[in-house]
């Protein structure tokens, strides 16, 4: 059987439906899954085990048989914990077939075949009765169905159904309770992921300010959660305006309601400022006493000794619909609204009691300004990066002439506006943008949007003019890996016949850079686990390995490295260059070489990123900003994802002497597909 998978083609910028082997989807899912990360999450595993033991004991003490329902068993881990703790029988439910198959194997290998029944169904399809999947209702409910937002993976409807049909009244639940915490902050950095700040342009005829449409000012944005490794956010990047408060809790041992609802708390600001963002995280109590607690609290809330790195659960950033000035000591109300799968927040001033009571219901956020649909959060951050904008302005000023005819190829870019203010005679832009933005800046008739793909551009679109300056950031929303933005080069090639013979292309070139790193933690997501709390989970390791090797050549994966500390083991090295002044060549671009290891450490993988050379002396770097100390700690561009290629085996060197002196590499840019393949030897 074949399946079709949607993927952006980096040579056309368009989505294509590719026929793939039926196993493709599942290998992708397994290879990129968070199972390994969960199995490495010692804190989570230990606490689940403690909670499960305590629950089994409580049931046994009542003289009852312990019948466990484990919804979303994955590897079967929690069921095996329950069986080891003395449970009489476990029903292990798993909807994802490859995982259910793996669970069967793992359960057998660990000798629990008689105690655990793996059922490959969604929990809402499970039947109870003499001929059913389960003989009887369970009296212990064990699950791990949570995402960073707690409810985003459908925990609430699953619990609601389980209490109605699959477990006994008064059952034990592990976890017993979840609690969501919030803290109100002011943060220019985080706010810059959600609103476009005015852009100042020093033009010859005075300062121009690019503003966002008024609709954007109070647009509630998109409902998708912004989940980040908040522990990587330095305290200097935000100001705390309130204490940490409990927003709401869910008791999983009682019937759960998943229907939309809202919760409200009163906050007394500890500081005056602009309330912009609600930071949020949760904890789970594994038992009713609250003694076994697993928390996602960030560094400034919990002691560092309790710290466990994890990527499957992070912290949430919620943007208020608009910034709200608050005064120290002057009470405000924070409302959390939720539907079955997501949460959103609103802040209200404490006026009359009645007025506030009436105003609790808040609509689910829908972007009204279009900007939040066009720009994702890192993209907002990028556009608000005044340093970056400066580089583009400086380089534009170098190349623009009063008779310049400029064509811009980049998604949702401000470059055409900059080019216009900096004096281009005529500016055209290809690809999409939103008109409201031009209206707000009175530019509707100044910048012409051409609704055609580059290969379909005609002279009439350009009113028979030739392009003297072709510009791009380049940035395209369909890009996953850094080099996918080389689509600019393909587009440039497609419009060649419309360019003047001495056209200026900005950026004039790009380069691919590479460095060998040791990750502080990110290695866990791709590292085999072996045994987990005494259970043999190697079957899972093998499965992940298989999926990673499914394609002949392993692929690099995108990660925003500002969230994932690493240290450099080699110097950064330029490995390929792409000359945008020429068209894309017919042949592939490849390079081979070696890179010296300069520091001791574990070579987990290579990081790759792009640099764009706007002019001969002005560049924009999307990767390594600097190596900040002699230990090799790296600082990364905070608005871009870099490509990470994990080595299949890790080389560890205790001393510089036993270091392999170099890592050899072969990197190939296939100009036909726009993809980069790579191979490393340690
Ligand atoms: N319990 C394992 C795995 C947790 S990951 C552990 O703690 O290590 C959650 C798993 O639940 C995923 O494999 C997902 O496919 C499955 N799942 C989520 N909702 C489910 C449902 N309602 N019914 C059955 N499986 C579900």
From TrEMBL:
Task: Output the PROSITE patterns linked to this UniProt entry.
Answer: SAM_MT_PRMT
Q: Which organism is it from?
A: Dromas ardeola
The keyword Nucleus belongs to this UniProt entry's keyword annotation = yes
Indicate whether Transmembrane appears among the record's keywords.
no
Q: What is this protein called?
A: Protein arginine N-methyltransferase 7
Q: Where is the Protein arginine N-methyltransferase domain?
A: 176-348, 508-677
Task of the protein: Arginine methyltransferase that can both catalyze the formation of omega-N monomethylarginine (MMA) and symmetrical dimethylarginine (sDMA), with a preference for the formation of MMA. Specifically mediates the symmetrical dimethylation of arginine residues in the small nuclear ribonucleoproteins Sm D1 (SNRPD1) and Sm D3 (SNRPD3); such methylation being required for the assembly and biogenesis of snRNP core particles. Specifically mediates the symmetric dimethylation of histone H4 'Arg-3' to form H4R3me2s.
Q: What is its EC number?
A: 2.1.1.321
The family database entries (PANTHER family) matched by this protein are listed as: PROTEIN ARGININE N-METHYLTRANSFERASE, PROTEIN ARGININE N-METHYLTRANSFERASE 7
Where does it localize?
Cytoplasm; Nucleus
Which top EC class is named for this enzyme in its record? transferase
Recorded GO molecular functions are:
histone methyltransferase activity; protein-arginine omega-N monomethyltransferase activity
Q: Name one GO cellular component term.
A: nucleus
Keywords of the record, alphabetical order, are: Chromatin regulator, Cytoplasm, Differentiation, Methyltransferase, Nucleus, Repeat, S-adenosyl-L-methionine, Transcription, Transcription regulation, Transferase
């Amino acid at each position: 059987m074949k399946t079709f998978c949607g993927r952006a083609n980096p040579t056309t910028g368009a989505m294509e439906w590719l026929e793939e082997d039926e196993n493709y989807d599942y290998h992708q899912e397994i290879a990129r899954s968070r199972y390994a990360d969960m199995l490495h999450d010692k804190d989570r595993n230990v606490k689940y085990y403690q909670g499960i033991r305590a629950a089994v004991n409580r049931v046994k003490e009542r003289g009852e048989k312990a019948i466990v329902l484990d919804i979303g068993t994955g590897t079967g881990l929690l069921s095996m914990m329950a069986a080891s703790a003395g449970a009489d029988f476990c029903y292990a439910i798993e909807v994802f077939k490859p995982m259910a198959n793996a669970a069967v194997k793992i359960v057998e290998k660990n000798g629990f075949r008689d105690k655990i029944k793996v059922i490959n169904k969604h929990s809402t399809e499970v039947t109870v009765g003499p001929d059913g999947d389960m003989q009887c209702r369970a009296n212990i409910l064990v699950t791990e169905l949570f995402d960073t937002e707690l409810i985003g993976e459908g925990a609430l409807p699953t619990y609601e159904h389980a209490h109605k049909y699959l477990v006994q009244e008064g059952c034990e639940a592990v976890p017993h309770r979840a609690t969501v915490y919030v803290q109100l902050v002011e943060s220019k950095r985080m706010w810059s992921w959600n609103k476009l700040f005015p852009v100042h342009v020093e033009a010859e005829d005075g300062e121009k300010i690019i503003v966002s449409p008024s609709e954007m000012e109070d647009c509630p944005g998109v409902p998708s959660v912004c989940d980040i490794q908040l522990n990587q956010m330095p305290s200097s990047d935000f100001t705390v305006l309130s204490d940490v408060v409990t927003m709401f809790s869910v008791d999983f041992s009682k019937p759960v309601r998943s229907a939309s609802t809202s919760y409200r708390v009163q906050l007394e600001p500890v500081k005056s400022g602009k309330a912009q963002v609600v930071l949020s995280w949760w904890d789970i109590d594994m038992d009713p006493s609250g003694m076994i607690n697993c928390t996602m609290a960030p560094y400034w809330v919990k002691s560092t000794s309790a710290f466990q790195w994890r990527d499957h659960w992070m912290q949430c950033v919620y943007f208020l619909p608009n910034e709200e000035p608050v005064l120290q000591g002057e009470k405000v109300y924070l409302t959390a609204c939720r539907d079955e799968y997501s949460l959103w927040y609103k802040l209200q001033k404490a006026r009359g009691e009645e007025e506030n009571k009436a105003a609790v219901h808040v609509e689910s956020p829908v972007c009204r300004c279009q900007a939040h649909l066009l720009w994702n959060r890192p993209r907002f951050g990028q556009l608000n990066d005044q340093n970056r904008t400066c580089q583009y302005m400086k380089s534009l000023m170098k190349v623009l002439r009063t008779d310049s005819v400029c064509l811009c190829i980049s998604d949702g870019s401000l470059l055409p506006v900059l080019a216009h203010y900096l004096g281009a005679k005529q500016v055209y832009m290809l690809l999409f943008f939103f008109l409201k933005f031009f209206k707000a800046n009175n530019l509707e008739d100044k910048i012409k949007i051409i609704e055609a793909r580059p290969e379909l551009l005609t002279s009439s679109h350009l009113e028979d003019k030739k392009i003297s300056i072709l510009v791009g950031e380049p940035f395209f929303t369909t890009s996953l890996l850094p080099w996918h933005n080389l689509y600019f080069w393909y587009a440039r090639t497609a419009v060649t016949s419309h360019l003047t013979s001495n056209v200026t292309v900005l950026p004039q070139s790009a380069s691919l850079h590479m460095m060998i790193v040791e990750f502080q933690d990110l290695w866990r997501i791709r590292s085999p686990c072996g045994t987990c709390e005494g259970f043999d989970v190697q079957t899972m390791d093998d499965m992940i390995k298989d999926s990673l090797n499914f394609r002949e050549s392993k692929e690099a994966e995108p990660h925003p490295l500002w969230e994932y500390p690493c240290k450099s083991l080699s110097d950064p090295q330029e490995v390929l260059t792409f000359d945008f002044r020429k068209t894309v060549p017919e042949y592939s671009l490849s390079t081979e070489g070696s890179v010296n290891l300069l520091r001791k450490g574990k070579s987990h993988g290579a990081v790759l990123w792009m640099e764009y050379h706007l002019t001969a002396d002005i560049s924009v770097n999307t990767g390594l900003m600097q190596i900040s100390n002699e230990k090799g700690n790296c600082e990364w561009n905070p608005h871009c994802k870099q490509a990470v290629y994990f080595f299949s085996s890790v080389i560890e060197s205790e001393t510089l002497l036993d270091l392999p002196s170099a890592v050899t590499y072969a990197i190939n840019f296939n100009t036909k597909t726009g993809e980069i393949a790579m191979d490393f030897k340690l």
